[in-house]
Amino acid sequence: MTDDADVYYVISDLHIGGDEQLEEVEFLDELLEFLERLENTDENAELVINGDAFGLWEFTTVEGMEKFDELESSYPKLFEAFRRTGENITVTLLPGNHDHELAAYDAYVDRFAEYNVDLVQNESITRRVGDRTVHFEHGHQHDPNNRIEDWGNEHATPLGYYYNTLVTSRAGRLSDRGRYNWLKDVQAVTPTERMPVWLFSKYFYREMNPILRYALVPFLLLFNISVVLALLAGLDLAGIWSMPVDRTTAFLGQFGTAGTAVWFLLAINVVVTALLLLVAIPLYFIRRDFRRTIDRFGVFETALTVDAQGPYESAARETFEENPETAVFCYGHTHRPTVRELDGGVLVNTGTWLKRLHRRDGIIGLLPPVFYPTYQLGTVRIADEPEGISVEYRTVGKPSPATEELTLTERLFTVGREPELDIPERTVIDDAGGTPETTPADDVVDDVEPVGN
Fold it and tell me: Which domains occur in the chain, in start order?
């Protein structure tokens, strides 16, 4: 354990590295600027990189220590920044699940030491701050899909390992084949079950022929109206109730050619919608029977989506109870930034520096959901202050990439529904063990969604 600092800066889940398109680090400039600030700080500080700094699972063409060579050659500015920052403050690196191999090869310790980075091959560490302590761990050990049962075993391969080597890495190799280089963002899709919906969304808004897409948009937007009209048309054909159809026809007839065009558009929508409804009825019963059969055989007894909150709250409570001097339980892994009071202590999740995708379902019609991309380059500062232990969540400046990456259609459908981040600007824990005091953030709120990585 290093000499205790007065201030701790914490980041996690950078996921740097991987095959081909995954090699690109979109936040590299911001990360270098952050390290430069720590390089020049006069604080008695320590930087804790709390797991998943590197995407070692995402390398499939090299093995073992060759992955370090790839990182070193691909990101020379980053490793030089580590060296300079480590000359001024302590830089500590903890393994996560994506870079668990850091705990499996002792040679990594020596290689990182060359750049003044202290690689600690443990599942967790503690640091003293004032008269209390901070517990650091990546958090994947509370996720059944990514738990490393045999810590330090280079052959440990939880479910998440196969997903990343078979899906994420392949996406990195194929991403540049699309109309836009979007497939590499597969690692930002959480939970995993959203993958089919995300792929369909990107196909519709990015890969589909624009003429075909713009021809479909009116039909999809009017689908809800078309369902009602189809039912009314059915009543009219059956001779039960013709008044709504007659009035609609008369109303549109007042507008001449334009009204006729709208009438034909609605008529086509009604016909197509009626056919879809007829097909949907038997498909619904077939799908329900199929799901019952699958459930009876127990093929999918374990859901891929795990509780991204409960296990960490339980782990924090257990830590606070077993070690009453612990003031902060700090983790990452779920990519959901969090700072909140829990049983007299503070539960902190440092979030991720990867792009985050926020699902925004269509308000009307049957349009595919939009996955709104943002960056939230989060850093946590934990310090011993006169009034107690302060915990501050800060973001490194990077604009949302929405204006660059969303099509005009996607932007129109998400106006006023941009994701925000709801995290207190500052939380203070007094030495007496009272309820921590928080200072609300003025401008930052995030949608809450279950995730797991």
Answer: 7-182+304-439 (3.60.21.10), 222-297 (no CATH)
